[in-house]
Amino acid sequence: MPTPLALLTLLLASVLALAAVPAARGAEQGAPTDTAAVLDGLDAFVDQALGDWQVPGAAVAVVKDGVTVYAKGFGLRDTDKKLPVTPDTVFAIGSCTKAFTAAALALLTDQGTMSLDTPVRDILPGFRMYDDYATAHVTTRDMLLHRTGLPRYDALLALRPEVSREEAVALLRHLPPNKELRAGFEYSNLMYVAAGRLAEVVSGQSWETLVAGRLLAPLGMAATSFSPQTAQASPDFARPYVLRRGRFAEIPFADITPFGPAGSMFASATDMARWLAFHLQDGRVGDEALITKTAMTEMHTPQIITPRGQPNPEIPFGGYGLGWGVSAYRGHLLVLHDGEIDGFKALASFMPDDGIGVVVLTNRMGAPLPEIVAFQIYDRLLGLSPFPWAERAKADRAQAAKVRTAKAAATLAVPEHPAPPTHGLSAYVGVYRHPAFGEVRIELRDAGLAALCGGETLPLVHVTYDMFRTAQADAADAPTKNGDAEPAGDSTSGLTATFHMDHSGAITRLDIPLEPNAADIVFTKVAADPGPSEPAATPGDAPQGATRP
């Protein structure tokens, strides 16, 4: 996993067969005989896309009428050893995990042990949001629909990787919302962590055990797991990559086990095809219904509208169900979720009314290849003229790169007439704490200041008055021909740190913009002398004896 602050920078810069199986495999499995003809030439299309978008490897699977009609690997799962991707190569699937968490809760609802519309505090001991109204009224449905008003606050994953799942839920009370409860869509990984924790309390099992036993085992998803350690024990797993100076650079696996219900799972295209078939068959495995059709329909029904980006007539609206995004593609109902986590990008999708589904897994984040490949396949299966998604993506990416460059320049700009710090540097030295985000330590290093947080030491460069900025890292990543550059794995440049003084003139506060869609996070000075490092205080009313699942 990249150092925690490196992960944070990536988060702030953003806004989802031991051998290859030939395309004709579907005919052997009883699929319609014309499917192979419809997908003829897809191999060449994907190979071309890998080169165009500079992605090391990809696995693609297509499901039609409950049958896997296509499953194949492309490119490399390990660039150093030149190991090829196969349909059984295991990739991180990131936020595609959320659908498994929602399905696990649907199982518990079906068996009558809970209701999605019961206030969470009636089920989960010690649950508290920032304000009393939300605390009293937030339901599991609200959490699964991202309508609690809580923004991402993904910095918590970076700065507090040591917290348990139970402790992470206890920290919610210190995080102010962006919106009132149910006032709009606010994507929140932390709410899925809380939903997974609620499932643990209701079932009496860990989230991992619940999902593995009640979903993965019946579906035959033997290669699917919950941690990078388990994934790397597989004989066929993909390594994560970023693009640096136009070349693939391997990065460490991200381990977000405590935050698992939001995005920690690993799976192969073969397994994910089984997962899509399960959804296309209304929650049945053979003649057995694991989840009722009513619950499955509810998962696939949009219950809140999501913000739209650039207008797109091919995808006219965006909504969110329970663990799935719900939209329409060229007039056909489309259920989907993407997932991005360090070095990986995935897309799982299906069209319930048409009985088809597509999964695309890749081992490089940031590139739009999963969407381009999936839509190419849907166009073919639906008999539509292929839409030039690659060309549109290139144009959009080039424009986004310009905007990103302009924002970066503005962020890193030096004031025309900078003022000196209001105090000597020693006055800024100390320990600053926030009840949720933990501790930031400011020390004197090499005649300057440095911030120690999240296990990383960041030199601070003075900007003006009491504003500092983390030093700009060496530019390791050159834009690609498609404007698809990624931050370096060790890049933490441009993070602003602003100190404040009290009425007596003493430095007592440090503000850091850790959440782009919320107010700066305020760290209060608790000690002038850093001394030995101590763990951040746990909220006094947090559950005792919490352990990591």
From TrEMBL:
<dbReference type="GO" id="GO:0016787">
    <property type="term" value="F:hydrolase activity"/>
</dbReference>
<dbReference type="InterPro" id="IPR001466">
    <property type="entry name" value="Beta-lactam-related"/>
</dbReference>
<dbReference type="InterPro" id="IPR012338">
    <property type="entry name" value="Beta-lactam/transpept-like"/>
</dbReference>
<feature type="domain" description="Peptidase S12 Pab87-related C-terminal">
    <location>
        <begin position="416"/>
        <end position="524"/>
    </location>
</feature>
<keyword id="KW-0732">Signal</keyword>
<feature type="signal peptide">
    <location>
        <begin position="1"/>
        <end position="19"/>
    </location>
</feature>
<keyword id="KW-0378">Hydrolase</keyword>
<dbReference type="Pfam" id="PF11954">
    <property type="entry name" value="DUF3471"/>
</dbReference>
<dbReference type="Pfam" id="PF00144">
    <property type="entry name" value="Beta-lactamase"/>
</dbReference>
<dbReference type="InterPro" id="IPR021860">
    <property type="entry name" value="Peptidase_S12_Pab87-rel_C"/>
</dbReference>
<feature type="region of interest" description="Disordered">
    <location>
        <begin position="526"/>
        <end position="549"/>
    </location>
</feature>
<protein>
    <submittedName>
        <fullName>Serine hydrolase</fullName>
    </submittedName>
</protein>
<feature type="domain" description="Beta-lactamase-related">
    <location>
        <begin position="42"/>
        <end position="367"/>
    </location>
</feature>
<dbReference type="InterPro" id="IPR050491">
    <property type="entry name" value="AmpC-like"/>
</dbReference>
